[in-house]
Amino acid sequence: MKKFLKNIIAFSILAVIAGEVVVRMTHAMSDIPQRTIDKYGIQKYYPNQEGYWKGGDHKWTINELGWAGELPSSYNNLITIIGDSFIENFMNPNECHQSAYLEEKMETYNFMEAGRSGVSLIEAMEISKNMDSLQPVKTLVYVNNNDFYESIREVKLMEDITQLNLKDSSIAYGKMKAPGLKKVLYTWKLLYYFYNRFPLFVQSNNTEAVIENKVDEYENQLKSKLEIFQLIDYISNTYNITKTTLVFHPNCNIEIIKKCKTAGFGVIVLDSSKDETSWSFEYDSHWTCYGHERAAQQVANALLK
Amino acid sequence: MLFNSIEFFVFLPIVFGLYWLIGGKNIKTQNLLVAMASYVFYGWWDWRFLSLILFSSLVDYSIGLALGKDQKQSKRKVLLWISICVNLGFLGFFKYYNFFLDSLIDSFTFFGSELSINTLNIVLPVGISFYTFQTLSYTIDVYNKKLEPTKDFVGFMAFVSFFPQLVAGPIERATNLLPQFSIERKFDYKNAVDGLRQVLWGLFKKVVIADNCAKYANIIFNNHTEYNGSTLLLGAFFFAFQIYCDFSGYSDIAIGISRLFGFNLKRNFAFPYFSRDIAEFWRRWHISLSTWFRDYLYIPLGGSRGGTSMKIRNTFIIFIVSGFWHGANWTFVIWGALNAIYFLPLLLANKNRINTNLVAEGKYFPSLKELRQMAITFFLTLVAWVFFRADNVTHALSYLNDMFTLSLFSWVEIFPSTILALVLFFIGVEWLGRANEYAIEKVGFMKKPIRWAFYVLLIILMFAFTGEEQQFIYFQF
Predict the structure, then answer these.
(1) Active site includes B326?
(2) Contacts of A194 in chain B (CB under 8 A)
(3) Do the Cβ atoms of A22 and B452 come within 8 Å?
(4) What is residue A223's predicted lDDT score, i.e. its pLDDT?
(5) Looking at the domain assignment, is residue A19 inside a domain?
(6) CB under 8 Å to A104, separation ≥6 — which residues?
(7) Which of A4, A14, A200 sits opposite B456 (nearest CB)?
(8) pLDDT grade, residue A200 (50/70/90)?
(9) Are A109 and A78 in contact (CB under 8 A)?
């Protein structure tokens, strides 16, 4: 038995090393940039990182300011683009980012992105406030229904996301979720591979799905609407939204859109229904390069009107 | 719990450690641990169905004891039939109730009447076909006085629910497995290493070959109208390797794990795709089921002893029942009947046992004749697999209709070269190891660093080419 266990341990160590080498060489898992929380409570990335997306077809980069993508060559006539993983856009190369497409279509403007997966609407507004020092001529905030729900603590409590506490109109900044575990997982790629391949907490994921369903059910209920409307009112009263345009993903709730218009936001509503080709990846709801190009075209058309 | 899941990778070392460290040389403690571990393993999927296994064990254990005591033939027969009815009753209800009801409703509709009975929303307990046949073999063998009834209920529970082979076989005979629960089991280094090697090969078959082939088989079968004949043939080829590597991979893992615990299970696959005729194929494919049907159905029906009509009848019965065992769908019945049609000419011409030796024994390459024979046999099984894989009979017929057109000779529309290269690598390893119990059994001749490098290569291939995780196909049977 001793010999058996000794050999098993020795072989396991060898296999783990070989597995780590293979996972890294084949880019079986995406490289993940390391996050930090700045002095304003905003979660962003450590500057100047780069890595490969899953499969190794392209690299993502984090710029000097800690956001994904490249910085503009000039900050004159600047339009800032804020959003979640759609704007962060690690799954596509830099030339498929909104800023790249918009720059092609609106040559007299410069564009700068600030995107991070999990950004809620309220966090997007906080980011926008912090970017005011760059004096943008316009701020585009890309949103979908969930960004509104996830902004409200009373509707969907999420400790890792910046949210508005409607009870006392205070902002609860997001905390880093299991930073130690994440650091280990992102460094030890084989472990991260296993973690993804064989998820341990399937049940808790299901619980989240149940919460999301509840949110969908709330969609047409007065209570949730009231809270969302309160959120929109809070934003319009607290932040300077005169230069802010909300870019709604296709199929967003029409009542939310109407309320945002009345509150004073500029509004662009994206529409993919007339497109025969899907905007999204087959196994991922994020947009492909095609989707980004189509979205940018619609945004540019609306802005140039 | 799936063999290729993280839960199992935690579960197995714990059970292994407890079994040898706490169980030690005490058979009763070891049996209790095996029974408990098996119930946890099964209950992980759905604990409610544990009651079915427990009830089945209780019934057959009691009937076994009664059969041992009672010498009166008529009473013994009644006891045997009680066991058969209880076991097949459960199987029939859970697996075939809705099928028979649907077929009855369809027949009434066909003759212009309407029958309104609601089908039930029945969940098929995983592995019910396997453990039912296993417990039945115990009662039948005790009835036929081939086996003494056991008085050790815990050992019997462990035999019925033995976790390595509980949900997808091999279907163990009581005469082989049950006595192993009453003899002292000592840890054997060589046996354990060999077991782990077989587990590794089984995982490779499942994770790399079966799951990757499944991806393309699914694409082609689900959209068959969009592809030409040669692509449809490729789809059937992918499914042939999916089902073989999925099922034989499971068997390898089951046999290998059993070895870690000191048990020896029967061989379930013997390189069936190197068969030179259908009779040989059926001696090499799902051996534990084929021999079960042979011993408990074919021979009691008279086997091939009677005249031609009896031979034909019995052959059709055994193949159709075998098809029906796989699932409550006419596609399985047709799959069975088609194999009977392939097999009958050999049986009637008395040529069903001409290829009992190893193909190209002691040679690296087969002769042209052997190659031709293997290709024809493989092609015949490929056609039959279309029925096995199709959603319904119409789907299968439409698939074959689209396949057997002139476009069969055009270039394929899907050509996943990496997956095909992996399948070729697999075929090569299987061919070189075809004289062994499993393909890589005899890699012991290599020096340790080379042998370990080969194992690491298999693991690397698993990491690099892991297909999308699919449940083992035979779980649904």
Answers:
(1) yes
(2) 6
(3) no
(4) 54
(5) no
(6) none
(7) A14
(8) low
(9) yes
